[in-house]
Amino acid sequence: MKPVKVAICGLGTVGGGVFNVLLRNASEIARRAGRPIVVEQVATRTANPNCDTSSVYVSPEVMDVIENPEIDVVVELIGGYDAAYELVMKAIASGKHVVTANKALIAVYGNEIFHAAREAGVIVAFEASVAGGIPIIKSIREGLTANKINWVAGIINGTGNFILTSMNDHGSDFAEVLAEAQELGYAEADPTFDVEGIDAAHKLAILSAIAFGVPLSFDKVYTEGITRIDVEDIRQADALGYAIKHLGITRRTDKGLELRVHPTLIPKERLLANVNGVMNAVMVSGDAVGPTLYYGAGAGAEPTASAVIADLVDVAREMGAEPDSRVPYLAFAEQADDMPVLPMEEIETAYYLRLLAVDRPGVLARVATILSDHGISIEAIIQKDILEGELVPIILLTHTTRESAMNDVIRELESLADIAGGVMRIRVESLEDQ
Ligand SMILES: NC(=O)C1=CN([C@@H]2O[C@H](COP(=O)(O)OP(=O)(O)OC[C@H]3O[C@@H](n4cnc5c(N)ncnc54)[C@H](O)[C@@H]3O)[C@@H](O)[C@H]2O)C=CC1
Ligand SMILES: N[C@@H](CC=O)C(=O)O
Ligand code: NA
């Protein structure tokens, strides 16, 4: 059969991995795809010292690939929004299939991109965009089609998990571990996307769309990163029997969809609590199958290449088929319009609070009264003996309550003369079917 000819755009961490794995496993991949997948062109601003491109046409300008009539599939691995958007839309308009690892692009422009792709009858595949090498999109989109999905919760940023793990294991300095993650090629070009939760929010928007059959709604994701997490919180959580992980959570409720990304206390016995380093893991709970778990490397050259190349094999298998017979881009042939995203104030969860109180009699009672006035019951309260100057740390675990009630409680606590500085709030999830 005729080879499938691809252009790799961007030869950085992921592009380099794709280039090398395609060469190394060429015959295995061809046997799976039913025909060879050949790199016809590489377009990149910077060379990759790990790749021998001497036998391939290399150009510095990505838009060149659109003009190349030999190219069947454009593999977009340059990242970012602007040039990537232009490249993908031009590829679609010229009838070329697209494979991308760019979650930012899909989360923000996906609705538009898929509309254009449907009109043009081309494939746009994006498995590498969520949880790196884990075939999570394929699992939800193809493996769980019998189910009404109830919730999805996952560690979906490798850099963030790498940092939290290192803080937990070695009490490492945040900036130093981030630099290491950058060195290893895990971080985004702008690493604030990793540490402020934006990258996870991009991925969660994609997961939510394919789990529930709703349009991509990145702008509605509640997003909190890991930059406020202190080693002290990790220690306190540990003493209470929890690990702190950065989670993306999307859940179907009677009132709408939860869509939130934030640090979370998870009971240590849960599998997700034991996912460390650059590894990612996603739990998907369906009404028929129950809870399922997908685990693997969330970032890095070859793990991510594994997902990109799986998409290329899918393209090779499906490009000759009628567009209507292909798997829908966002998993559902028809989208639901009755699942609004719940405002964050309406979600219900349990909370960990850490505050610093002036060492005066009655302070603990005043704190407890504020909580009980808002109908919030306390599961655990710890007042530490060790004084920080004149201040005593107080750690609280609450039962489930509404976010809006907790916002009021925190406002009132912070206005007490007894409480110094802000209250640290981390949400707590049991990760069990409710
Ligand atoms: N690094 C990772 O582990 C993962 C990255 N991704 C995504 O994959 C994409 C690529 O990421 P990395 O490989 O890490 O980035 P990178 O920064 O290592 O590589 C980007 C490459 O694109 C080239 N490039 C950028 N803009 C260009 C332009 N306008 N014209 C020509 N060449 C251009 C650069 O020269 C470089 O070779 C991003 O969308 C990222 O979010 C997804 C999953 C994992
Ligand atoms: N920067 C991302 C790369 C993969 O998506 C991460 O750290 O997870
Ligand atoms: Na993936």
General description of the model:
With 434 residues, this protein is an alpha/beta fold. The chain folds into 3 domains: 4-134 and 302-325, NAD(P)-binding Rossmann-like Domain (Rossmann fold), CATH 3.40.50; 145-297, Dihydrodipicolinate Reductase, domain 2, CATH 3.30.360.10; 347-428, 2-Layer Sandwich (Alpha-Beta Plaits), CATH 3.30.70.260. Helices cover 36% and strands 26% of the residues. The chain has helices spanning 13-24, 26-33, 64-67, 82-93, 103-120, 136-143, 158-170, 174-183, 192-195, 198-212, 231-239, 301-318, 363-373, 403-415, and strands spanning 4-9, 37-43, 57-59, 73-76, 97-100, 124-125, 149-155, 222-223, 242-253, 256-267, 279-286, 290-297, 348-358, 378-383, 391-398, 401-402, 419-428. The strands form 2 sheets. Strands 7, 8, 9, 10, 11, 12, 13, 14, 15, 16 and 17 form an 11-stranded mixed β-sheet that branches. Strands 3-2-1-4-5-6 form a 6-stranded parallel β-sheet, with helices on both faces. Helix 4 links the parallel strand 4 and strand 5 (97-100). Helix 1 crosses helix 12, helix 4 (82-93) packs parallel to helix 5 (103-120) and helix 7 (158-170) packs across helix 8. The protein is elongated and about 80 Å long. The mean pLDDT is 96. It binds 1,4-dihydronicotinamide adenine dinucleotide, the ligand N[C@@H](CC=O)C(=O)O and sodium ion (NA). Sodium ion is lined by residues 127-128, 130-132, 134-137, 307. L-homoserine binds at residue 188. NADP(+) binds at residues 9-16. It is an enzyme of class 1 (oxidoreductase). Keywords: Amino-acid biosynthesis, Methionine biosynthesis, NADP, Oxidoreductase, Threonine biosynthesis. Its EC number is 1.1.1.3.
